């Protein structure tokens, strides 16, 4: 079972993704956001910026897991830097390219999560949480592609 704190905080981490989609669906909300806090927090801009932050954050989480597996340290560390490097090198070139690269990055991240789980480096509940969160992220990023 996923610990309540991990589930609640993980789900709260989806809020900026939901916000980005909401501003794409509601011109009034987009305008209010623009007026109050600026264009960086609207539609594809917030989806891309926050997507990069979270993909890089997850690289750090994987690095921590890799540190637990001394017998496969090189492989674990190499895999753990992948999502951050992916974001650095491939997120850019306009909203369509960036959102597509982020979707790919999060799907590949899920595969890396699964491998770390198979190696016994993650908590038992990790994949259940990652499936929930990755689904939410990918759906929001895909909505950004379709609506943007």
Automatic annotation (TrEMBL):
The keyword Membrane applies. This is Uncharacterized protein DUF3429. Pfam families: DUF3429. Keywords: Membrane, Transmembrane, Transmembrane helix. The chain crosses the membrane at residues 46-67, 74-92, 98-117, 129-147. InterPro entries: DUF3429. It comes from the Bacteria. Signal peptide: none annotated.
């Amino acid at each position: 079972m996923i610990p309540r704190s991990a589930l609640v905080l993980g789900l709260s981490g989806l809020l900026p993704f939901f916000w980005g989609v909401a501003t794409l669906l509601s011109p009034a909300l987009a305008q209010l956001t623009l007026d109050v806090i600026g264009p960086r927090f609207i539609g594809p801009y917030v989806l891309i910026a926050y997507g990069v932050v979270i993909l890089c954050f997850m690289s750090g989480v994987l690095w921590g897991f890799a540190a637990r597996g001394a017998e496969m340290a090189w492989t674990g560390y190499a895999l753990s830097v992948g999502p951050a490097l992916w974001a650095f090198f491939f997120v850019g070139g306009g909203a369509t390219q960036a959102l597509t690269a982020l979707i790919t990055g999060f799907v590949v991240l899920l595969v890396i999560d699964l491998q770390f789980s198979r190696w016994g480096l993650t908590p038992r509940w990790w994949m259940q949480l990652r499936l929930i969160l990755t689904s939410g992220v990918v759906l929001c990023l895909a909505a950004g592609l379709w609506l943007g």
